[in-house]
Design a protein that fits this description.
By secondary structure, this protein is mostly helical. It has 9 helices and no strands.
Length: about 200
């Protein structure tokens, strides 16, 4: 389950990082960096938290996925499209990455025997950490701080998996249901413009 979540998250976030790099008019190296940070940055932060070697540093599979996504997206001329961040495929790829990495972060934290707060924080960092690093690099306010129920989705997913773990139900069937629920929640929140309450 962890490997599947890592694969889907890396693939999806590499694509969304590519779109952000293109919109920022970066060169090819810059686009690779934004894709790499988006796809792997949160996982590196997570692995450092649980005191293990970052997976993307020891397994070439994940950097290779990022490179492959960049090459295919470039060959398909996705960089020719305008307003990329408003396109459905950007929203969907970003959503898949968010939910996948929230799941992988939760599972890693549970395996590390973290407390409930450690589990939720690890899930949030894994899901949004790469995007925050990317946005800071291009001098942009991170989506986590200004957008529509974004980080909240990662926390909701973590809560659901934590509850499943308490009942010994963290199998592929239930994790898949949580994945589907998280994706649906994020898409509904985006298209219905849901926001958390703000101080006035």
């Amino acid at each position: 389950m962890l490997d599947i979540a890592e694969f889907i998250g890396t693939l999806a976030f590499a694509l969304s990082g590519y779109f952000v790099g293109v919109k920022a008019k970066l060169d090819f190296l810059g686009i690779f960096i934004t894709s790499f940070l988006t796809a792997l940055g949160g996982g590196v932060l997570r692995d450092l938290l649980v005191e293990r070697e970052p997976l993307s540093f020891v397994d070439p599979t994940f950097p290779t996925i990022v490179l492959t996504v960049i090459m295919i997206a470039t060959l398909l001329k996705l960089h020719k499209n305008s307003s990329l961040e408003n396109k459905s495929y950007f929203i969907i790829s970003d959503t898949l990455g968010l939910v996948s990495f929230a799941i992988s972060g939760t599972l890693v934290a549970l395996n590390a025997n973290f407390s409930i707060f450690g589990v939720f924080l690890t899930a949030l960092i894994t899901a949004v950490g790469g995007g925050v690093l990317r946005d800071m690099l291009i001098n942009k306010v991170p989506l986590l701080l200004k957008s529509d129920f974004y980080g909240s989705v990662a926390i909701v997913v973590a809560v659901m998996i934590y509850i499943l773990d308490r009942f010994g139900m963290t199998n592929i069937f239930w994790i898949t249901l949580v994945f589907g629920f998280g994706v649906g929640l994020r898409l509904i929140a985006y298209y219905r413009d849901w926001h958390l309450p703000k101080l006035t």
